[in-house]
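Students often ask why we bother encoding 3D structure as a string. The short answer is that it lets us treat folding as translation between two languages. Here is a chain of 124 residues written in the first language.
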Amino acid sequence: QVQLVESGGGLVQAGGSLRLSCAASGRTFSYIAMGWFRQAPGKEREFVAAINWTGDSTYYQDSVKGRFTISRDNAKKMVYLQMNSLKPEDTAAYYCAASKLPVVTTNKDRFDYWGQGTQVTVSS
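And here it is in the second language, the structure alphabet:
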């Protein structure tokens, strides 16, 4: 079992930045891929970014490339999502997720554990 707790969401103006954090506890953290997803009201949960267990392979949704950066600290059991140049369309609940697979995946069905989410609201 892996327990995930997100933090760092909030209200920010367009063009601003936020850094989301995800604290993991439970089974070993070092051999699992991690990801961030988001869900806006009335929409399906969508992939945002993912990172493999060593941290040297990442993948992003096209709309966030160049603006968002995913990273991890295995010693601290933490995953981060640095979000810059935020846009109103980035408004959503953001979820941290852990996969039992060590490699990067964008498929939400491949993620086995989920946090409760943190709300990000970007005003125009």
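Translate back mentally: DSSP finds no helices and eleven strands in the chain. Keep this in mind for the problem set.
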